[in-house]
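> forwarded from #structure-qc
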């Protein structure tokens, strides 16, 4: 009984640490590695926050992907003076991470193809989610189209970076899972 409890506690602690790490990485990559496009509407913000988000989702699964995206990018909005956007970001990017992780976990087949599909579906969630968010915030059906190029670019760039590497990351994560907990 005691050994089972210790293993459960170790697993919970590892999960907590991994989730916190990916929240921090997503926040940092969004906050410090970004470029604002000079377009109408929100103008589009290109950032690399989707890189750790997709690594979290494709390596650790839907829950970690959702947590990293929702909290990491939601915190970015709050800390960057865009607090009005934070609830929308929390839902949209959380859904992106959850869905990408779910597809990666559940869809059989070639991992590169499956992960590409997962990123493509996340891209659709981002485009549709932020389009309607801007319609709500700006009260205009045309202006939100100005943000679409930035949204597409940031997800495509993240996919180009993450998809070739995610298999290696998953193997490395698997090696850590096989190690015995420290006593």
């Amino acid at each position: 009984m005691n050994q089972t409890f210790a293993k459960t506690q170790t697993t919970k602690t590892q999960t907590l640490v991994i989730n916190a790490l990916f929240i921090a990485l997503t926040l940092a990559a969004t906050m410090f590695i970004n470029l604002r496009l000079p377009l109408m509407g929100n103008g589009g913000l290109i950032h690399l926050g989707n890189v750790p988000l997709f690594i979290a989702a494709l390596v650790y699964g839907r829950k970690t992907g959702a947590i990293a995206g929702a909290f990491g990018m939601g915190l970015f909005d709050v800390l960057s003076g865009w607090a009005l956007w934070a609830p929308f970001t929390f839902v949209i990017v959380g859904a992106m991470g959850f869905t990408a992780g779910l597809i990666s976990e559940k869809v059989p087949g070639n991992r590169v193809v499956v992960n590409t599909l997962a990123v493509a579906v996340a891209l659709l969630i981002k485009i549709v989610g932020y389009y309607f968010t801007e319609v709500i915030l700006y009260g205009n059906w045309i202006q939100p189209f100005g943000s679409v190029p930035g949204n597409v670019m940031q997800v495509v760039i993240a996919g180009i970076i993450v998809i070739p590497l995610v298999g290696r990351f998953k193997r490395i994560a698997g090696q850590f899972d096989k190690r015995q907990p420290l006593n």
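QC bot note: The longest strand covers residues 34-36. The beta strands are 34-36, 45-47.
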